[in-house]
């Protein structure tokens, strides 16, 4: 019996070694940016007066205020139990702006990810239970950030080194 690896085994071993060299900080940064973008864009639909989309390059600077459609959304579509629509709209708009900013900066990353994971759970179980494939991806990224942290390209990393 030969102990020489087959060409396929050798190729797989080399591929695994290459993949293992992907920096975790790059994965964390991509995860932070991607999840932050999802929640930020959702938050932007709930406010007026301040619109920032760095990907599209559109900026409308001004004082943010809750849009009337946000309250209607919570009253008519989301219908969260035990939470008045006015409060739910304010909480969601604030959380969908503050937590993504913290995630992008890598400041309090694990706690920001925990907050967004809580929002994801509410959305999954109380609002859109059929969207589990999407919410599962968000949850996986957020859990990874909670377990592994934000990576080197973050304020958290800079603070930890001081």
Automatic annotation (TrEMBL):
Record family assignment: Belongs to the DoxX family.
Stored InterPro entries: DoxX, DoxX-like_oxidoreductase
Keywords: Cell membrane, Membrane, Transmembrane, Transmembrane helix
Record organism: Rubrivivax albus
Topology within the bilayer: Multi-pass membrane protein
Subcellular location: Cell membrane
Primary location recorded for the protein, binned into one broad class: membrane
Name under which the protein is recorded: DoxX family protein
Pfam families assigned to the protein according to its UniProt record, in alphabetical order: DoxX
CC per GO annotation: plasma membrane
């Amino acid at each position: 019996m030969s102990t020489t690896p087959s060409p396929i085994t050798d190729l797989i071993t080399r591929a695994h070694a290459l993949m293992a060299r992907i920096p975790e900080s790059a994965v964390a940064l991509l995860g932070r940016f991607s999840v932050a973008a999802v929640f930020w864009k959702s938050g932007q639909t709930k406010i007026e007066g301040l619109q920032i989309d760095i990907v599209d390059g559109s900026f409308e600077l001004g004082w943010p205020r809750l849009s009337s459609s946000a309250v209607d959304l919570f009253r008519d579509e989301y219908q969260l139990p035990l939470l008045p629509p006015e409060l739910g709209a304010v909480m969601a708009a604030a959380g969908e702006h503050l937590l993504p900013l913290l995630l992008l900066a890598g400041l309090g990353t694990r706690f920001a990810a925990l907050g967004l994971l809580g929002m994801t759970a509410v959305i999954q179980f109380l609002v859109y239970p059929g969207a589990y494939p999407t919410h599962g991806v968000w949850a996986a990224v957020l859990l990874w950030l909670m377990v592994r942290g934000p990576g080197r390209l973050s304020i958290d990393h800079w603070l930890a080194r001081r």
